[in-house]
Amino acid sequence: MRIFSRISHKLIITFLLISVIPITIAGFYSINLATQSFEAITLENTQFDLFSSAEKIYDFINYNESDVIFLSKSPAIRDYFFAKATHSTSEIERWRKLLQEHFLIFCESREIYEKIAFIDANGNEIICIEGDGLSFFNKPYDELTNVASQQYFLETMKLENDQSYITVSSTSPTSKTTLVTYATPVFDTLGNNRGIIMTTMSAEFFLNPVKYSFDLNDTPKKRSSLFLISNTNVYLAHRVGEDIKTGEIVEIATFVLSGDKNIISGESGTLTDQKNWIITYTPVFIDPNNKDEFLVLVEVIPRDVVFSNVESFTNIFILLIVVAIFVSIIAAIMVTQTITRPLRELVRGTRKLAKKDLSYQINIPSDDELGFLARSFNEMGKELQGSYTILEDKVKERTRRLQLANERLNALVQELREANLQTKEASRLKSQFVSNISHELRTPLNAIIGFSDVLLDEENLTDEQQDYLQTILKNSENLLQLINDMLDLSKIEANKMEVVYQKVKLDELIRRVYKLMTPIAKDRNITMVIESDIIPEIKVDKTKLRQILINLLTNAIKFNKEGGLVKTTVSYYDDNKDYLKIEVSDTGIGINKKDFEVIFDEFRQIDGTDTRDFEGTGLGLAITKKYVEMLGGKIWVESKMNEWSKFVFTLPISQKEETNNEKDTHS
Ligand code: ADP
To answer: Ligand 1: distance of its center to the CA of 501 in Å?
Structure first.
């Protein structure tokens, strides 16, 4: 299916170039930027959360410390010291037991201490309560030991009032967990250092304040793991997040407890280069005055938990970009369709117009330029249709008129044909009549000429008689000539004149004709010359050529002046030497230019007093012209009035048996 024409392809590609590509580039650039910022913010939040957790742990440690200090200032201890100073041994023991009872109640109320001991200034345990967190009991009197050599004792004894010593270095013999020891010195009312109060608790409790927030339902933190270690890389406590496999925990724990330099540096920070986790760490300073010993809270969060929001944000963003691209593609197609639909309609219209379907109306109802174009196009179609109708009507009218004219012409042709037939018939009758009459006239004329000749030989004729006879003879000869000429002409016109070709030596023929003419020329003292460089032998109808020459030479002598010159010149007419040119010139009266054509017509003699002195029939040149044309040549005249005339005719040298038509081609 052809949805788009080529122009729509171009438009769509253009739209896509200016919309989809920028959207894609800008979109993905924004995603990248936003993701990076979002990740950074998320990590900051994670870090901040860890700070809060560390604060809670710190508060918890402080609270425990105040607990111990509070215990060291208990009135029961004061009473015990008082009794020890003033009372008997049994009385002291009673007060000790009372103090022991007080400690036991304290332990049971707190439930976090594993051990609470009162140690005198010599390092002897006076009271020692031990427990497992749930039940507590007094250490039997005989099991009480001296701890004077213990570091916590020595360190605590150095402290002032309200100061405490906290350490994490020992391990519980019962639970095997790391123990935290709190110790504070005990002073009597006189300000004498009378020993120390020492408590131990499992370090696991340190995570109690934060565990709650990690175990809340619907929080991603449920999957996080927490580690509490000391900066000397002693393990204190941990909390394992949900959904973490054992292998992974071991891996995480190994990494955390390996004491990575970053983690135990005392700074806060985040490690993001671990494969599936984000590790956040922050120090928890137990003793503000002691920066050498502190705890490190480490949170290990699965990467996907941290960046779950980022990931969903990225997904939404990508979805938005895809939607934007999709929308711009749809928009591009729709815009293109909107533009090209009218164009296609226009193209359809032009095709219809090209196929002469002028009634087709382009349907583009819009008011824009294309709509205007379509309306103009429709109007043009209508006008064309109108013009065509008028044109067709005109063509029909012209055709009708032409038919009429044609019919008239046919009728005319028919008339002409009939007239022609009649003319031919008349001509035939005329020729026959001329031929009959000539024949009829020639017999008596020959008799007249013959008898006149005989009579002229009579010796006893008077001069007057001789004159009459001479006149009879001359007029008879002229009449015979006229009859002969008319006979020839009618033969030519009736196509009865045949052409017989034979080889002729031209110079010889001319010389013979000259011989014939010499007596007449001599009569008028006219010189006759032949001028010819070539002596060609041509194939020609000898009789007709002879007649042509006689006619021309007769005129040249006849219309010459007394003592004039007649000259015959033979040369080649063309470069190919296919034709001869024969010129007969004289120094006579000349011919007016306007008469150059008419003198070749039958019975045409030039009017004028000069010519009318000459005898003639007016047929000589007409016959001459016809003969020349029969022989395949042409004839014309050149002249200067009162000075000279020149009759020129051409002849093909090698005559073939040509038809008259072929000869006409040359003429
Ligand atoms: P005609 O028998 O009168 O000589 P032609 O047909 O031979 O008839 O000549 C026609 C006319 O052409 C002549 O009457 C004459 O006026 C003119 N003509 C022919 N030849 C010459 C010539 N050589 N010089 C001058 N006029 C000529």
So the answer is: 28
